[in-house]
Every structure is written in C-alpha cells, then in structure tokens.
Write a structure and sequence with these properties.
Radius of gyration: 15 Å
Number of strands: 8
Largest sheet: 8 strands, parallel, barrel
C-alpha cells in the first residue's frame, strides 16, 4: 500500500473564505495525493453530507480521502481510510471497522508512541508537531527535526510530518527523513491554496530521495 506524500487537511476554523469542498478541490488540483477531512464542530449528519461531497471530489482527481476521527463516517462513504488522534478510537478498532484494505493513520508525538502505533497496525503515522503552529493550541513544545529523524529511522511505516510546515521548511522536513508532510494553515489560509499546494508538491517530490 502506497501512502501519499502530500496530505492537505481541510480546515474552516483557520479561515472562513473556503468550504471543505472548495479546499479539497483546490488541493487536488494543486497535486495533493491525500485530502484529510477534519471538522470537530459538525453534527454527524452534517459531517456525513460534507464527506460525501469531498469524496466525490477526491475520486474525480484520484486522490485518497482520509476522514479524521470519525471512523464510522469513513466506513459509511467508503473513504480511503481514517486518521485517529491520541484520544480517538484506537488503531485496532478502526482497522476492525474499516477492513484490511483501508488506510489507517495515527497521530503520534514521541518515538514510543510511533512504535506502538506501528505495532498496532497503523499504515502511517502523523508525527509532530514539528514546528510551532497556530492551527491548533498545543500544550507541548514542538518536537523538532532531530526527533523526526529519530522516529523516521526506527519505524518501518511512512512518517508524515505535521505541525507548522510551510513552503519555507518543507524541504528540510523531507531531508530529515519524513516520507511526506501534512499541512493545514499553509494551504487553507493561503491567498491561493491551489498554487501553494502545487509548490509544496514540487518541493516534496524534489527532495523525496533524501527521506
């Protein structure tokens, strides 16, 4: 199973100009191979309706849709998979619901958590936050590039770096060992999300050999 290298997480709290659907379309047009749909505020029915529309956009562009947290919604719409956080449904439980062919990702912030996620059967780990980020309030300091490199060297599954990643530092994140990157504000809050996605994609692919 090949995990995409550029994950764009849609967000309507860091900005209010674009909907999840609009962000997903621009990200796909810019070259994102994974779109992660995340919204903690919507009811299940409202989220399900949005997820169906985003799934159609992703299929149109042959991108993988990953649903954050709401594994039941991922299952209902036959999404590419789900991403579970540290307080969400467990990796094994998500796998049981989604089946062997779905992608299951997990958030981690330490080497121990990364190794545990691998043992539990995650297909990839989201590791971070690598840098300071304004997208989410974080009670812990950034893990930094050295910790990212240590994790990438120890686990056998792809490491997707997240947290404060921008056009300015994406290359060094890949050089540190990350398989790919996940971005929120860098794309969603950009003046031109499509163009930023395209530049991030070019940067990641240009430096992928070093990761």
């Amino acid at each position: 199973m090949t995990i995409g290298r550029l994950h764009v997480i849609t967000d309507v709290t860091v900005q209010s100009r674009y909907s999840h659907e609009e962000l997903a379309r621009m990200a796909c047009e810019g070259g994102a191979d994974v779109v992660q749909l995340r919204d903690k505020s919507l009811s299940r029915d409202a989220f399900l309706a949005v997820a169906r529309r985003v799934a159609d956009i992703c299929r149109e562009h042959r991108a993988v849709l990953i649903v954050n947290d709401r594994v039941d919604v991922a299952r209902t719409i036959d999404a590419g998979g789900a991403h579970v956080g540290r307080t969400d449904l467990g990796i094994r439980e998500a796998r049981a619901l989604l089946g062997p062919h779905a992608v299951v990702g997990a958030s981690t912030g330490s080497l121990e958590a990364a190794l545990e996620a691998e043992r539990a059967g995650a297909d990839y780990i989201g590791f971070g936050h690598v840098f300071a980020t304004s997208s989410k309030t974080k009670p812990t300091p950034p893990v930094g590039l050295e910790a990212l490199g240590r994790v990438a060297a120890r686990v056998r599954i792809p490491v997707i770096a997240i947290g404060g990643i921008t056009e300015a530092n994406a290359a060094e994140v890949i050089a540190a060992g990350a398989w790919g990157i996940a971005v929120i504000g860098a794309v969603c809050a950009a003046a031109d999300p499509r163009a930023v996605t395209a530049r991030l994609r070019a940067t990641v692919m240009a430096h992928a050999g070093s990761g």
